[in-house]
Amino acid sequence: MSENQCLYAIALIDHNAGSQTYCYAIVAPDQVKAGDAALQKHALENEAPMEELEIDADLCYEITCAPDAQGNLFYIELTHSA
User: Fold this and answer.
1) What is the 8-class DSSP label of residue 15?
2) How many whole angstroms separate alpha carbon 48 and alpha carbon 51?
3) Is a pLDDT exceeding 80 seen at residue 1?
4) What is the DSSP letter of 18?
5) pLDDT averaged over every residue in the chain
């Protein structure tokens, strides 16, 4: 990978589908590019007009770690598949 990649959760609202919220996990160098990728993916897969889509910034975040059921913390490290 040429740029440092991170895992982002991107929430978007589709006003064309009754203002339903969708969430995408996207790998990108920053949250803006992740948001753009989520919008394009949703628009293409659902034939939704881009002007009817909105990113819900309050529900978007970078995923750097996550706990298991016992509370043990695991850090997320991305590696590119060959």
Assistant:
1) G
2) 9
3) no
4) T
5) 93
pLDDT digits (tens, 9 = 90+) for 36-51: 999 999 999 999 999 9
- Pick from 78, 44, 79, 81: which is nearest to 62 by CA? 78
What DSSP character marks residue 69? Answer: T
**Listed residue (1, 47, 4, 8) closest to 26, CA to CA:** 8
Model-wide pTM > 0.90: no
Count CA atoms within 13 Å of residue 14 on its CB side.
Answer: 20
Secondary structure class of 31 (helix, strand, coil):
helix
Question: Which residue, chain included where needed, has tokens 């770690």?
Answer: 65
What is the DSSP secondary structure assignment for residue 17, as one 8-state letter?
A: G
Single-letter amino acid code for the residue at 55: I
Nearest to 60 by CA among 28, 15, 16: 28
